[in-house]
Amino acid sequence: MEFSFETIIFYALAIFISVFSVMTVCTRHIVRSATYLLFVLFGTAGIYFLLGYTFLGSVQIMVYAGGIIVLYVFSILLTSGDGDRTEKLKRSKLIAGLGATIGGAAIVMFITLTHKFVITTDPEPVETSIKTIGHALLGSDKYGYVLPFEAVSILLLACIVGGLLIARKR
Q: 13, 44, 128, 156 — which has fewest CB within 10 A?
């Protein structure tokens, strides 16, 4: 098997994302967990850039790595105390989580190994104009994104208000 530079970069990003994903869920400090999640989101943006999706990679960095992580850290620091740490897992929950992980990995491996991947005949990327992207994002038709965007913004607003109410009770 011959390795190109893009293949090496892909595997490096995949390992980077995997390591920081595990660190995100295994750390007992919640602010560190948010920081590790930031690195996972940067790695995902790197995958998008590697695939040639520059717009999607830029959105990943601006919206998720920028805005959402700031929102997480803001809400964590607003609602938690100085010494808040997660509790130690019980043995039964650890075994259940390990079983779910192994089961999910087995399903992913089965699907990946049995799928017949088709080689594309036209590897040239298709450039889409900003006008087309803008109409797709702001369109209210069947494939528009206005309704999901507004639903997510209302959900985030409810989370912020809930965090403020919890912090205010203390």
A: 128
How far is it, in rounded angstroms, from Cα 110 to Cα 108?
5
Mean pLDDT value across residues 65-69: 78
Residues 110 and 142 in one domain: no
Report which of residues 85 and 5 the model is more confident about.
Answer: 5
∠ CA 111-115-116 to the nearest 5 degrees? 170
Backbone angles phi, psi at 139, to 5 degrees: -75, 145
CB under 8 Å to 60, separation ≥6 — which residues? 41, 44, 45, 48
pTM above 0.85? no
In this structure, the answer to whether residues 111 and 141 fall within a common structural domain is no
Cα separation values, 9 from 77, 116, 123, Å? 35, 24, 19
Number of domains in the chain: 2
Same domain, 133 and 75: no
Place of tokens 């892909």: 10
100, pLDDT greater than 90: yes
> What's the first-to-final CA gap in the chain, in angstroms?
60
